[in-house]
Structure formats: structure tokens, C-alpha cells
Amino acid sequence: MRIIAGKYKGHQLVAFKADHIRPTTDRVKETLFNKLQFQMEDSKVADLFCGTGNLGIEALSRGASFCTFVEKNPKSLTITRQNLEKLKVPADQLKIINMDVLAFLKSYEGEPFDIIFADPPFTEKMAHFVMEAASVSAGFGAHTVLAIESERKERMEDRYGSLVRFSKKEFGDKILSMFCHESALEGEQTND
């Protein structure tokens, strides 16, 4: 696993052994960040189910100003911290929260994020529940973009309240969906 672009480009992330982590592949990551390239600069990002910190670190590498890493698994949190330390990511650009993601979304009271990444555990088929929680969370604002990975066979709607899916890409058994507030799409055509 490596950082693809930006100030940490080419840096390898720490090797690990953890059956519960399925890192986002470079191919999916490339597609995702190509879609977000014009929103990345100075953005406030949340990396939910951060696992290794891969997506949040990639965002910081590409110009995001701050990332909140959310994860409840102690082993994953250790790996995330090791990666942040290895790359010497400044402490004032990040926050690590040891918490269940659904509880985090429901209790969040800060400013909305610009970009939210969510890669729920593939064994738990919970993407639908993450989207339900995101649709009523203070973390999702009128200009937020949420990218979520899900399994092909699990439930995923095209709309959750005022959040609408504007992009869907399939990568084998994985689907990358992107959601935004319906007001952000007025007068625009969706493109995949």
C-alpha cells in the first residue's frame, strides 16, 4: 500500500497482518481521487472506518487541510497511528477518534465535512446503515461529498433523505458510490 499522489507520493504505508482490514485498492483510490481532485484543496475530511488511514492520508497528501480518522478497532487505530507517524503528518492536521462510526455520525455536532470517506467492514454489510446515519448527521452539509464502498450484493439505495447518489462505479465485487446533497445537483448532469 502506498500514497499515489501529492506531498507523500510514493511513500509506502506500514505492512500489517489483520484479517478485518481490506484496504482500498490503488485502482479504486485513483478513480475516487480523480473525481474529487477539484474539491480536495483545503478541505476538511472524515475517514470513517479508517482501517490503516489510507484514504485520509491520501487526502492530506493531495491538499486537504484536516482529517478526522474514525475507527473503533484497536488494531486498526494502531496501524493508522503508525502510518501517520511514519509520514510525519503534522498533529494540527488530524484528529483520531476511537468510536463506533454510526455513533459518531449520530452524535457529531461540529461543522459539516467537505468530504467523507466510508469503507465499512466488508463482513458486516452495513453501508446502507452508514448512509442512513449520514443523511441525518450534522457532518453532512449542503456541499459535502460522501464516497462509500460497498459489496455488490448488499443493500444500497440511490437516495437517503436529501442525499442522492451521483456516481456509481463497479470494481469486481466492490461498488464505489458517491453521494451529495440534492441541492448540489440542481442544473447539473450526473456523470460516472
UniProtKB/TrEMBL annotation:
Q: What class of enzyme is it?
A: transferase
Q: Give EC number(s), comma-separated.
A: 2.1.1.171
Q: Which domain of life is it from?
A: Bacteria
Q: Which keywords has UniProt assigned to this entry?
A: Methyltransferase, Transferase
* MF term (GO), any: 16S rRNA (guanine(966)-N(2))-methyltransferase activity
KW Methyltransferase (keyword) present: yes
Please give the PANTHER family that the UniProt record associates with this protein. METHYLTRANSFERASE
**NCBIfam families according to UniProt:** 16S rRNA (guanine(966)-N(2))-methyltransferase RsmD
Query: What is the recorded name of this protein?
Result: 16S rRNA (Guanine(966)-N(2))-methyltransferase RsmD
Species annotation: Bdellovibrio reynosensis
